Structure formats: C-alpha cells, structure tokens
Amino acid sequence: MAASAAADCPAVRIEGLVKRLPRGVTAIAGLDLVVERGQVVGLTGPNGCGKSMTLRVLLGLVRPTAGRALLFGEAVRPGAAVLGRVGALVDGPGFVPHLSGLENLRLAWRLTGRPAAEARLDAALAVAGLDVAIDRPYRTYSHGMRYRLGLAQALLGTPDLLLLDEPTTGLDPAHVREVRTAITGVAARGGTVLLSSHVMAEVEEVCTHAAFMREGRLVAAGSVAQLTGSRRSLEAAYLDLAG
Amino acid sequence: MIRIELAKQARPRTFVALGALAGLTVALAVALELTGAGRAEPVGDIPLLLVPAASPFVLPLIALSSTMKFFLPLAVSVFAGEAVAGEARWGSLRYALGRGVSRSRFLAAKAAVAALLSLAAVLLVPLIALGAGLAMAGWQALPAVDGGASAAVRQAPAVFAPAAALGRLAVGTGYVGAGMTSVFAFAFFLSTVTARPLVAVAGGVGLTILSRVLNYDYLPGVAVLSPYLPNNDVDLWLHLFQEPARTAGMGSFLVLQAIYTGVFLALAWWWFTRRDVLS
C-alpha cells in the first residue's frame, strides 16, 4: 500500500463486523463504522450492546467472526504494527500490582520497543496527576487513581488514535474535567478519539460526532449537531433513535 | 522483553517460593544434623543407605530426592502457571498485547522468564544442601550402600571420590531439572487458557499428583499407564550412586519429558496466538 494512499485513510474503518462468542452470544452483529481523522466520536448504547467488544477488535485482542477492521488503512491483526499508533483504556485499567505507577508506565512503554524519549512520559504524568503517589505500589491506589494511571498509559507516546471505554467512570468532578481536557487536547493536535460512554452530556460536550449502537449494530451516526437536529439535546436524540 | 518480564516477576510470590525451598533445605540439614548424624538414612526407592555428616554429598542427595516429587513441581507450577494467567488477572494482558507486541515474542519472553525461575528453584536445593554439607563434613568421599539387597548379603559401600560424587550430583540435578519440564509445559499451557493463575498452578501440581497416584507401586492395575506418566521415574538418577551406575529407564524418561514439553508448549503457542483476549 502506498504511503500517500494510507494518508487519506480514515483513522478507523469497520466493515460488516460480526463477533459471535461461544454459547451462541452475538456481541457484534454486523457493524459498519467510519471515524475520520481528527474526529472525537462518542460510541453510545445500552450495556452489552457491543461497545467494549468493538474496541477490543480494534486493538487486535479479539478476532472477528466476519468482517474486518482497519486502522489508518491497515487491517488489524494481533501484533499489527499500526497498534503502535493507538492508545487505549478498555474495561478499566490493568497494571502490575506490586510495581509503582511510574514503573508500570515505564514497563508498558518499554514493551513497545520504541525509544524512551518518544513516550512523552511527562505529559502522561501530568494527566495522571498522581504527585508523590506515582512512586507507591499500584495496589495501594484508589479507584480514581487507577483510572487516571490507565489514562496516562493510554496517552503514552502521543497516540494518533485514542480508544477509551467509559473514561470518566467513578472519577470526581475535578478529574472528569482533566480527562475531558486531555481528550480535547488530543483532538486539538490532530489526533482522533473514539470513546464509549453512557453519559450523553459528556458525549455532547467533548465529542464532535456520535454513533449509537444497539444489540451489536449501528442505529445512527453523524455529527452531534446532525444527530441532535431540532431536539432539545443529544440525550433526547439517543432515546428517540436507540433507546 | 525478557528484562521487562523479569521486573514483573520480582515480586513477593517469587521470593516466597524460592525462599520456602531454601528454608526447607536448610531445615532438612538442621534436622539431619540434630537427629540423624552418624546413622544410615535410606534415600529413594533403591534405597540408598547414606550416612549424613559422613560426606558433603549426602545432604544434596536427600534434599533433592525429598523435594523432586512435590515441592519442586509445586514451585515450577507456580512460576509457569502464573506466567500469562497472572497478567490476565491483573488486567494488564490486554494493554501489553494492545500495543501491537507480537504475541509469539510476548509468549516466548514469558516462557523464558518462567523457565529461568524454575531453573533457579531446581539449582537452589542441591546448592544450598551442598553448602550445608560442606560446612558439616568438608570435602569428603561419598560412601553409599545399596540397601536393596538383603542385610545378609549387603555389600561393602561403593565409595565415590569427591569429584566423582560432585559430577554425578550435577548429572542427577540435570535429570531432575529435565523431569520438571513436563509439569512446566503443562502449567504454562493452562496459563495461556485461563485468567485464573490458581487454576494453572493447580493443574501442574495435579499432573504431578496424578502421576504419583497412578503409579504401579500403589496401584498395580494401572501398570499399563505407568510408563506414560511424567513424574514416575524422576527418582532414577539415584541409581547413579550405585556401583556400577545403572542408567536403565533414564533415556526413555527424558524422551517422555521431551514429548510432554513439546506437545504442551506447542499447544500453548497455538492457542495463545489465536485466542480472544477477553480478560
């Protein structure tokens, strides 16, 4: 594939994606979704509608039963090189409990094999905002601290695409504000964000676009303004279209 | 990547497992020094009759033969079973793999570090015991009596010069180490399947116990299975301390280990490079 062609590819392209799990559960039932570069897209829908599974497919963690997912024009496979351009926080943070937050971030980055300077550790640490706690073992962290470290990990290396699953769950208002600032910061430097959220007000505030999922399918997608239309809010649109 | 995985395993559980093996060996040395010094001790199924404190090589033989059937397989199961499943339970597996790291390389690093820790466990026991033995007896030859013969026809002890005894102990340790590879590979395979490390550890220990239980010594009816169970003949190295040394059965045991190890490591790789990561 020529580099010039790849430069025009959307950040995310999902085509006819199906994921069936053992015991007959269909997590994703034919999903088509395109996220253009620079967009901040809110993926919303009821619990179990396939949001997290979609993000896992994009990370090469789950193999689709049918269909395909492309990131920047490259098909996602386990170990795909393009995953080096992606930062993610899916189904909560996950770190080595007996190591400190800082050691965890360093190890997570070293695993990529890229130079330490590219990690932009300082910027990620600023988002985590853990101060001296960054040197304490991870297992001593509160829920909110763990989440912020997870977000810092996702922001390592200034990713071109950020995949976030419920990024503000369980955070206090001040940190919700910081997370939203970090998301808009990624967008401001030309990055792309795909986040899942239950909170319509959050999607309305930070996202340029939204996609409503239900039972593993896309039911509506477009800019926040388009989806809202003449309704009072994006929430009203969601209840109309997907609720 | 191996250095990264080593850093992750520098944790309390690793030190407890290795420390417990070391402690067990020291306790054995102390117990034999207090109660058994000067009295012949039977070791293994032959049995060998050895006199603790007569030679520095008695303790390593006793320590290795009393840990090879349970405590060493347990330690090896802990290291192999925790390898991937531990990371799944922490929730860090999805982030490690989501960064585009090759699953094969990741698995190889995990296997290498677990194998390194297992090797440390196997070496720790005879090394500590030898150290204690040297402190107690100095650099002495090893007299060993084949206790299998009836008392009436018992021969004079075979005497192994210190260097020869050390060489045979090294071979015996290598043999025991090779005997751990089947348990290692099985627990490591389970570790790629489950997100619960305890299940993988229990699987490795379970294979060891199963192979002890389905042993012709206890259950003559299952004699047909005996040659295929991976832990039965782990004690054959003790025959090296007879004169002449007997090596019967050792070759087929090593082949059996290689088959178990090859099959389960291949299965681990096959499954891990294809599985969905839902943890």
How would you sum up this structure, described in words?
- The complex is a heterodimer of chains A (243) and B (279).
- In chain A, helix 4 runs antiparallel to helix 5 (143-155).
- A six-stranded mixed beta sheet of chain A has the order 6-7-8-3-9-10, sandwiched between helices.
- Mean pLDDT of chain A is 91; it is low at 1-5.
- Helices cover 33% and strands 24% of the residues of chain A.
- In chain A, helix 6 links the parallel strand 7 and strand 8 (192-196).
- Chain A has a single domain (38-60, 79-241), classed as Rossmann fold, CATH 3.40.50.300.
- Chain A has 243 residues and is of the alpha/beta class.
- Chain A is globular and about 45 Å long.
- The termini of chain A are far apart.
- Chain A has helices spanning 3-8, 51-58, 101-110, 121-128, 143-155, 173-188, 200-206, 224-228, 234-241; strands at 12-20, 26-35, 40-44, 66-71, 74-75, 86-89, 161-165, 192-196, 209-214, 217-223.
- The model of chain B has no long low-confidence stretch (mean pLDDT 89).
- With 279 residues, chain B is mainly alpha-helical.
- Chain B starts with a helix and ends in a 7-residue tail after the last helix.
- Chain B has ten helices and four strands.
- The longest helix of chain B is centred in the middle third of the chain and has 35 residues, at 103-137.
- Chain B has one domain (2-272).
- In chain B, helix 4 (71-90) packs antiparallel against helix 6.
- At the A-B interface, helix 3 of A face helix 1 and helix 5 of B.
